[in-house]
Amino acid sequence: MAKQAKTDRQAVIESIRKQQKSAEKRRGTMIVGVCVLVALLIVGAAAYRPLVDWWELRGIQDQALSDIGAPADACGEVTTKKATGSQEHVEPGTPITYDDAPPAFGTHYNVWDEMERKLYIESDRPDVGELVHNLEHGYTILWYDETVAADDAQMDDLRAIAQKLQGTDDLRLKFKAVPWTEEDGEPFPKGQHVALTHWSIGGAGAETTGKQVGVFQYCEAPSGAALEQFMEDYPYMDSPEPTVR
Predict the structure, then answer these.
(1) How many CB atoms lie within 10 A of CB 244?
(2) Dihedral sign, CA of 223, 226, 232, 236?
(3) Cβ distance 105 to 212 under 8 Å?
(4) What does the alpha-carbon distance between residue 48 and residue 59 come to, in Å, rounded to a whole number?
(5) Which residues contact 161 (CB under 8 A, 6 or more apart)?
(6) Which parts pass through the membrane (predicted)?
(7) Where does residue 179 fall: left (phi above 0), alpha (psi -120 to 50 degrees), or beta otherwise?
(8) Nearest C-alpha neighbor of 215 from the set 130, 107, 139
(9) Can you give the pLDDT at residue 208?
């Protein structure tokens, strides 16, 4: 009888062990499954924006830059202003006040942003002092305000413009589209939400030929047509330091 009781206890113990092992196996499988799911979500999230961008931009390969966004007459007249600040470099983080919103010239940081990136949002944009150094090197910068940043269609236009100007080997593609925020300075003129700037050494339309000027053009919305003409009139070679990337 005692032997039978012992055998029954062993059977119960073995049954409990099997149940525990089965439960542990299920937990392990669930943990692996959850980890795989989290990994897939992370990969999916990382891939989502590029896929959306690709889908939205898939039709621009055959579209001319001048056909993207608003027509050229959405922009006002080009204006110029005597430029100062060439070769006036300061360390990154040094406070700099610019009189213009946005600047086209001035004292700037001793670093600049490389050509690879063409479009930025507020969270990853280089400092204004760094971008002014890009202007000294012949870049055209398209600055856009919070109205454009909050408009999906206009941001799609900026993505399309940036895509058309991709590249790092051709210095004619010295272009960046960056946000201008209230922390940076005064707002653009009323009704204007985009500004094109260039640091010229006296190109087309300069008020004082042969003298450095800042070039400005304000627009109601992003305009590939206006940008194309602006970059033709004020190419990268028309700048204080054109051969530096």
Answers:
(1) 15
(2) negative
(3) yes
(4) 18
(5) 65, 68, 69, 119, 142, 177, 222, 224, 227
(6) 28-48
(7) beta
(8) 139
(9) 47
What does the block give as tokens for 243? 């051969």
Structure tokens at 236: 């990268």
Tokens 């001319």 -> residue? 64
**Per-residue pLDDT at 10:** 74
**φ and ψ at 200, to 5 degrees?**
-105, 150
Exposed/middle/buried for 97, CB within 10 Å: 0-12, 13-18, 19+?
exposed
Instruction: Give, as one character, the DSSP assignment of residue 223.
Output: B
**Cross-strand partners of 215:** 80, 198
Token readout for 65 is 């830059």
- The pLDDT assigned to 238 comes to 97
Helix (H, G, I), strand (E, B) or coil at 216: strand
Is the distance from CB of 88 to CB of 96 less than 8 angstroms? Answer: no
pLDDT along the chain (245 residues), means of 10: 62 70 73 74 61 53 92 98 96 97 98 97 97 98 98 98 97 98 97 98 60 97 98 97 94
From residue 244, give the alpha-carbon distance in Å to each of 16, 114, 115, 131, 173. 75, 10, 10, 14, 13
Cα distance between residue 37 and residue 212, in whole Å: 58
Could you tell me if 116 and 97 are in contact, meaning their C-beta atoms sit under 8 angstroms apart?
no
CA neighbor of 79 nearest in space, from 215, 239, 226? 215
